[in-house]
Amino acid sequence: GENVEQHPSTLSVQEGDSAVIKCTYSDSASNYFPWYKQELGKRPQLIIDIRSNVGEKKDQRIAVTLNKTAKHFSLHITETQPEDSAVYFCAASPSGGSNYKLTFGKGTLLTVNP
Amino acid sequence: NAGVTQTPKFRVLKTGQSMTLLCAQDMNHEYMYWYRQDPGMGLRLIHYSVGEGTTAKGEVPDGYNVSRLKKQNFLLGLESAAPSQTSVYFCASSLDRGWGTEAFFGQGTRLTVV
Questions:
Q1: CB neighbours of residue B104 within 10 Å
Q2: Chain B, 15-54: which have a CB under 8 Å from a chain A CB?
């Protein structure tokens, strides 16, 4: 089955700096790669996702890049703010149907220091 | 629109007791999932369902059973609770579009087994 590795497990940055979180996956059939943010005591929520037919996607200060050949994808947060502090999870899944299931990485605790 | 609702939010069980966690979604989603979240372990898939009447094992299925008799409900059962099942449990659901789509999470159930 799919195995998703996520690094680093913790990341501390100064407000205004950039943060980068990296993930690798093992199943070449995976073609959907979402990122979730989980604030303390809350449920995970989708912040951005990318499908295998594109290499990069941006949404304001957040961007995701995908390298299907190397089987890795990354989350980039620019101009970080204290409210970006949370646990971030990457995930991977194949297409829909009976094989569809979302496999998560172990998470990255991001702390943005004012 | 309530989204994904889990019942109960908190529960304390004694070793050997049984219980059922209920997940209900009102978005007409085909896919539903049960994850457990433990410190440093991320979100691990217990069981999932790709449609009414179907269930499948995830990464950590031992000690759990599930049922999806109605499309909107996904039940997670613990027949004989063990301290190792102390965790936060999240239910999630998503649409089947033939490709990956956003998973919406419930608010979580904090289970303690003593």
A1: 19
A2: 31, 33, 35, 40-45, 48, 50, 54
Q: How many CB atoms lie within 10 A of CB A76?
A: 17
In angstroms, the separation between the Cα of residue A80 and the nearest Cα of chain B is 23
Per-residue pLDDT tens over the stretch B65-77: 999 999 999 999 9
Closest alpha carbon to A57 in A69, A71, A74: A74
Is B112 in a helix, a strand, or coil?
strand
| C-beta of residue A31 within 8 angstroms of C-beta of residue A51 | yes
Q: Which residues contact A41 (CB under 8 A, 6 or more apart)?
A: none
Which residues, at least 6 apart from B23, have a Cβ–Cβ distance to it below 8 Å? B4, B5, B6, B32, B34, B73, B74, B75, B76, B91, B93, B106
CB nearest to A106's CB, from B41, B56, B92: B41
Tokens (6 digits) for B28: 């007409």
| Tens-digit pLDDT profile for residues A35-88 | 999 999 999 999 999 988 888 999 999 999 999 999 999 999 999 999 999 999
Whole-angstrom distance, CA of residue A72 vs CA of residue A65: 8
